[in-house]
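Here is one chain, start to finish.
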Amino acid sequence: MKVFDRSILAEIGRTALLIAVALTLILTAVSMVRLLGTVAAGDLPSDLYLPYLPWAISEKLPLIVTLSAFAATLLVMQRWVRDSEWAVWRALGVSRWRLAVPVLGLGMVLALGLALLTTWLVPFAEQQKDRLKAAAQARDETQTVAPGIFRESKDGHRVLFVAPRGEETVGLFFMRQWQAGRQMIVVADGARVENRDDGKWVVLASGARYEEGASPLAFRVIEFREQALWVTPPKPVSEVQRVRAVATPSLWQMAHEGHRAAAGELVQRFGLPFAAVMLMVFALPLAEAEPRTVRGVTLFVALLVFFAYVNLLSLAQAYVVRGRTSFAVGFWAPHLLFLRCWCLFISGA
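Its structure:
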């Protein structure tokens, strides 16, 4: 039986590793495209793109590991059934329940690794993402304006353009601003940034301000030798962390004190390792149904099962957060429901 255990564990392990690498590469490509869109929209500075990318990928690793283990178990068992290798082992006296022993053992080891990912890596990744987002929000418009480029403010009410001249001053300054449905255009020959007690100011030199009047073609022109524009200071960064970024020990304390969002997050963090074990065991009878079905139907059913299980965990989390059920019920209900479905599937197989 040691030969049997080593054979199935080695093949599932290799297949799971290949699937995990492939899914991680796909996730990396998708995350890069999404973050590029975020940078293009101005929600994330371009210099924070590369530091933000690995943390955006890290938070999805538990799902990738779970799906890889489930798919690897299913594919390996399908090959055994298709190549009659499983029939040979059955003829040697290996029962269906004996097959579940090494798979269950591998699932338990995987669950420990997943628990480490969900309880430590994911909160840490969320903390790093929040730190980078706070750093991006703390920047004012004078730090994001680049010479020679038209830059739109975050609220979409202001467009700035400057031409380079020196280190502390700029040449041509152009600003178009919308306020109360009317636009104002400011043009100046030069500008400099000054830090004062009440915030940061942009001091314009030798320019004019054009303010739209009641009619679209009516403008009021005001010429000036020097004018200062106050740059709105950034909002202070809040020290309050989101529940998803809270460390697990602190999350337990919050849940014990009656924080429903913390209890719901615990359902998700500790529910995924349980789901990985259940899915790996469920893949065994699902693979045996392959010869009696159209090729590829089993993989489609497996994907439905995986997404159904993950959505059940999310639904249980939402019920706990909204106070519709207790933590114990919300935690065990998805797994017990899936175990019941597995038993029904086994009895009908």
